[in-house]
Amino acid sequence: QEIVSGENEEESNGVNLMEFSDEILLHILSYVPCTDLVLNVRRTCRKLATLCLDKSLTHTVTLQKDYKVNKDKVKQLMRDIGKEIYQLNMAGCYWLPSSTIDHVTRCKNLVKLNLSGCHVTSLRLSKMLSTLQHLRSLAIDVNPGFDASQLSSECKATLSRVLELKQTLYTPSYGVVPCCTSLEKLLLYFEILDRSREGFMLSGQLMVGESNVPHYQNLRVFYARLAPGYVNQEVVRLYLAVLSDRTPENLHAFLISAPGSFAETGATKNLLDSMARNVRLDALQLPKAWINGSGLLQHLKFNNPFYFSFSRCTLSGGHLIQRVINGGKDLKSLTSLNLSGCVHCLAPESLFRKAEDDIDSSILESLVVSCCNLRHLNLSAAHHHSSESIGNHLCQLLSRLKHLLSLALPVCSITDVAANVEKPPTASNLVPQTFGRKVRIGIQTYPRNLADQANQKIESSVFWALMGSLRFLETLEIIGSSFSSAMPRNEPAIRNSLPPCVRAQSVGDSEVAAISQLTYLQSLTLAQLPNILTGSGLINIGLQCQHLRTLSLANLGMMGKMVYMSALMDMLKHCKCLRDLRLEQPYFCAGAQFFQALSHCSSLQRLCIVSRSGTLQSDAVMSFMANCLEVIMCHMFMGESLTVCKNLQQSIVRSFQADRPALNVVIFPLLHEDLTEVIRDVPMRHLDEITLFKSRVAEEPPNLWW
């Protein structure tokens, strides 16, 4: 009806949407969710009825993040176009009942199916897969109660033809891996907790009936990501045991992401030795203990590498240049590099070096010259201090990487060295960043006018020049090298935070304003910028970065006061495309004025606020939820009492759950002893993408999964 009424209006102006060519209309329709196309748009007129069922629109159906879809819509969608669907992505549809999966059986021609985050029992999985004989790519969760013995012979026959498998494990199990005898790509996500809900310690030993040997002979890609916990480490070793016996000849990507300490064993050493002898890799990531102090990188062979991750390793810059990029030889194939937490990666050696010492610019220059096609680069969680040498600042060297799409840097790396040398620390810089007794200090004078502010300082700074040279950057993270989030994963909330690096003390409003040059910026993370006085740079970003979809701000300015609230509220009024907002700031007041400003973000879907000693106004939250109809996730971890939090959470669910099937609300005291129990019930999609703070640049290889 809207389209028809729009036609009448357009006809008066001499333009009719239906007069466009089919190719243009199909391109326009490709931006409309498939459920709307099939269930609504195609009913408006005959031409659209035909176009909406075009193969280019029905071949691949994505329900991921289509938060308005429900069981009935899925049922109708599968009934209308099920036979035309070849790729179906339902990842993260946690709100759909498990019976919804029964309707997937109508998609007889499915080649790719993603059910990560969906509720699927082993019996339902067996019934569904028995009918999908053409399936070659599958993503599922393995939850407690999964029983591989319940899989039928027809189901196992389908699994034997699957080439790509992504499996998220919430319980110790091989899942369906032993049934997939033709695997070429295996992605494993280990999310097993060390304790059950009843408090019992879990074991990583698999059940005797599940000890079938996985088939890795055709494997090309092996990826494993571990959540914290010893059980996850025990289980992944069982998956690796088969690899250590016989390394697949065609293996070209081997990636293990493990937090904390994951010790090397005899079996893993044999595996790595075998890889060094028999395979040539294109992508590599290993636990830090497997690389630190070993000569492994010297013996591994690489073909045309596109991804390296040495996160948290003690790898020195000298070793990086000699063993990884072959003394500065051409590595144009490398598109993604993760050196997060690699504190010595830009220094010639690490033996006698302090983490805060200046970097060796020649190492970074060799890296930039050799890897000139980098699109994703992560240098966060380290002190990368540039020397006073003219033209050798880290920002100046990185400005040569014209293809960068995502970049993560520590705050101390973007400071203008000359400015720091000329200007002694101010009183505000010397105040300790603690929660103790408040100290009155003299505040520097600063220009109210944003244009004057830019003209005064940042247009001549190295960071301003870097932002100007990376015009197509889509993701930017500027994170303090000593920043740690108060939001836990499997442990109590962090109560104390380390002070920012001395070099970072001058980074504030003017540097934030420089970011506004990134016209195509979609995701921005700023954490532990100590010299934020007004937040005026945020307004520039709101005005200029109109494509911004994700915003994460943490511990900006003085820790005892929310100094940038006024600027933040002004910024939010311009963020029409913003979908995800995460705020972590002590003493944050989530009141009526804040939520009124946030209501201007008409596209907002997910909100997370983490605030030690923070307060909230329940009426303001309810009014915000009523005004912002797209919001389906509200997570608030504040300093309010348990009673206040529970009452507000229940009110939101009671008022809005019926109209928003995907609604997920968690409001809970940040320092409560049961917080970890509450966290475990948060859907993994929200937990991984927004609730937990982490650097996401180059976290995984690009296009790891479709």
* Structure annotation, total helices: 27
Alpha carbon gap, first and last residue: 35 Å
Using only C-alpha atoms, the radius of gyration works out to 26 Å
Write down the overall mean pLDDT.
Answer: 89
Overall morphology: globular
Tell me roughly what share of residues is in helical segments. Answer: 25-40%
Give the class from helix and strand content and strand pairing.
alpha/beta
Major beta-sheet overview: 20 strands, parallel
| Uncertain stretches | 207-211, 421-448
Number of strands: 22
Strand content: 5-15%
Describe the structure.
By secondary structure, the chain is an alpha/beta fold. 30% of the residues lie in helices and 15% in strands. The chain has 27 helices and 22 strands. The strands form 2 sheets. The protein has a 20-stranded parallel beta sheet, sandwiched between helices. A two-stranded parallel ribbon has the order 18-20. Strand 21, helix 25 (642-656) and strand 22 form a beta-alpha-beta unit. Helix 7 (122-129) crosses helix 8 (153-160), helix 22 runs parallel beside helix 23 and helix 23 (592-598) packs parallel to helix 24 (618-627). The longest helix is centred in the middle third of the chain and has 16 residues, at 230-245. It is globular. The two termini are 35 Å apart. 45% of the residues are buried. Mean pLDDT is 89; it is low at 207-211 and 421-448. Residues 14-61 form the F-box domain. InterPro entries: F-box-like_dom_sf (IPR036047), F-box_dom (IPR001810), FBXL18_F-box (IPR047948), FBXL18_LRR (IPR045627), LRR_dom_sf (IPR032675). One of its GO terms (biological process) is SCF-dependent proteasomal ubiquitin-dependent protein catabolic process. It comes from Spizaetus tyrannus (black hawk-eagle). This is FXL18 protein.
